[in-house]
From TrEMBL:
It comes from the Eukaryota. This is Cell division cycle protein 20 homolog B. It comes from Galeopterus variegatus. WD repeats lie at residues 41-82, 175-207. Residues 3-206 form the CDC20/Fizzy WD40 domain. The keyword Cell division applies. Coiled coil: none annotated. One of its GO terms (biological process) is cell division. Belongs to the WD repeat CDC20/Fizzy family. Keywords: Cell cycle, Cell division, Repeat, WD repeat. InterPro entries: Cdc20/Fizzy, WD40/YVTN_repeat-like_dom_sf, WD40_CDC20-Fz, WD40_repeat_dom_sf, WD40_rpt.
Length: 222
């Protein structure tokens, strides 16, 4: 699907709509069912680092390199005049974020190297409910609905995956072994395994229920 004039750094699905964000600050909505697939555009001033549709498809969150986290309403036909519902300023680029599966108004956001905190945001108020420090850049994160936990993929110095209990946000374990920043995390359909991909060129699959003790990957490949 053509359209972007620069690197596409973020994607998110909402049923038949695929939203894509570029380094030039454009978000395009693509309806994959039709040939004229571009059905909407959102504009940012800086590069789009992250995109996430909420589970119910009502809200789209976008994170940019200038530290702005923007919440948009569902409107695949959006044009240049479209206005966001809310803009929340963060101290670093917004690259890691995920909507809470069991609290629709809660968004988890990972802080960059200058911040290093896991921010649990109430998007109604735009304030952090909790913000524990990880002492590291947060490059990725996912919620673990079965165990009511959240996993964060870290950068330097340890390049590990930390698992946090909810709502206390105390460390309950982790997955260790990557030698580069953990850039991507994904949850298996049965919610029992975590997939991680790192800047060292490796990908691993971890058993969620072994996170309370130092864990080795069940499978790794490159």
């Amino acid at each position: 699907m053509l359209g972007h004039l620069s690197v596409v750094g973020a994607l998110s699905w909402n049923h038949c709509i695929l939203s894509s964000g570029s380094r030039l600050g454009r978000v395009y909505h693509h309806d994959v069912r039709v040939a004229q697939h571009q059905v909407g555009t959102l504009h940012h001033k800086q590069a789009v680092c992250a995109l996430k549709w909420s589970l119910d498809g009502r809200l789209l969150s976008s994170g940019c390199s200038d530290g702005l986290l923007t919440i948009w309403p569902h409107d695949p036909g959006a044009n240049v005049q479209s206005q966001p519902l809310k803009v929340i300023t963060q101290t670093t680029a917004v690259k890691a974020m995920e909507w809470c599966p069991w609290q629709s108004e809660v968004l988890a956001v990972g802080g960059g190297m200058k911040d290093g905190r896991l921010h649990i945001l109430d998007i109604n108020s735009g304030k952090s409910i909790q913000a524990p420090s990880t002492n590291s850049q947060i490059c990725s994160l996912i919620w673990l609905p079965k165990t009511k936990e959240i996993a964060t993929g870290q950068g330097t110095p340890k390049n590990d995956v930390i698992v946090w209990t909810c709502p206390a946000l105390s460390r309950s374990g982790g997955f260790f072994g990557h030698r580069g920043r953990v850039l991507h995390l994904a949850l298996s359909p049965d919610q029992t395994r975590v997939f991680s991909a790192a800047a060292d060129g490796t990908a691993s699959v971890w058993n969620c229920y072994q996170s309370s003790s130092p864990s080795k990957p069940q499978h790794a490949h490159f």
